[in-house]
From TrEMBL:
GO terms for cellular component: plasma membrane
Family listed: Belongs to the CPA3 antiporters (TC 2.A.63) subunit B family.
Name of the molecule in the record: Na(+)/H(+) antiporter subunit B
InterPro entries: CPA3_antiporter_subunitB, MnhB, MrpA_C/MbhD, MrpA_C/MbhE
TM spans (from-to): 12-37, 57-75, 87-105, 151-171, 191-210, 222-241, 253-273, 293-316
Protein's cellular compartments: Cell membrane
UniProt domain Na+/H+ antiporter MnhB subunit-related protein: residue ranges: 191-312
Domain MrpA C-terminal/MbhE span(s) in chain numbering: 105-172
Xref: Pfam families: MbhD (PF13244), MbhE (PF20501), MnhB (PF04039)
Protein's membrane topology: Multi-pass membrane protein
Alphabetically ordered keywords of this record: Cell membrane, Membrane, Transmembrane, Transmembrane helix
Domain MrpA C-terminal/MbhD residues, every copy: 12-73
Amino acid sequence: MELLLDISLLSMLVATAVGIALSRDLLAAVMLSSIYGLLSANFFVNMDAVDVAFTEASVGAGISPLLMFATLAIVGRHERYPHQRALAALLLVALTGALLILATFDMPAFGAVDAPAQTHVAPRYINDSYSEIGIPNIVTSVLASYRGFDTFGEVVVVFAAAVGVLSLLTVSQSASSRVPEHLLKASHHKILRVVSKVLIAPILLFALYVQFHGDYGPGGGFQAGVIFAAAIIVYTMLFGLEAARQVINVTVVRILAAVGVLLYGSVGVVAMLNGKNFLDYDALAHDPLHGQHYGIIVIELGVGITVAAVMILIYFSFAGRLIDRSPDA
């Protein structure tokens, strides 16, 4: 039964990928990519990788399509396909795919018991993480403690990406190339607006649950930040940018994007001031397990704040670039 389910999911993934490659309608491609994310999340759940599935569902099927929709409002829905370059692109993709397939022959077989991940890394984390970190979620232990410095780098990359995107989107644009704000909000969809008012508050509450329950179950700062931002973006799409700005102060959000990174890094600085290595949470309390727990809570909070703020800022910048502020709009 499990094999049949795997084959079905993989078949749907291949069919969805082919549909994305063949579609010239960018809106359809975005919708298919969202479906691809949901199928991937189901596949990861079937492989017992629940944390990865959670991330794929929230990012691949959640926030990414929303940002792509905002992009389509700028670039247009239909792709202008350069037919004269189709053969060169096909050859390049075929060559890249062949090299990737060739590289898989040097990898251990899927699920092989003698693979390095099974003989070295996995036993170390499974057998020792609870006694060293003190939390039941091994994935959180690895990402937030064992690989804490690497995760810090990922948060810095998210912040740097936000700076780059905001720098590009703040380039002056003539009002004639913008669209009226009423095209960016579903003011005439009464059902969507009513349902959103019922669902947005539970979504925000769920984001907080994912944020602070990541030590004990699937979740953490990345997933919580994306879920929180998705709720704000849905509100913006349904009620308009100006209504959202009355609730969300853009200046405060920009500050929070940097505060999350600083909060993460400050944990490492505090550890160094107490004579430990950077991001060694043992220095945060007399009991090393308590120190690990405190450190993980703080750095995950920093991750969630930065991710949520960055996603909100990027969408607000897209929407603000599109709004026609001329008097006759």
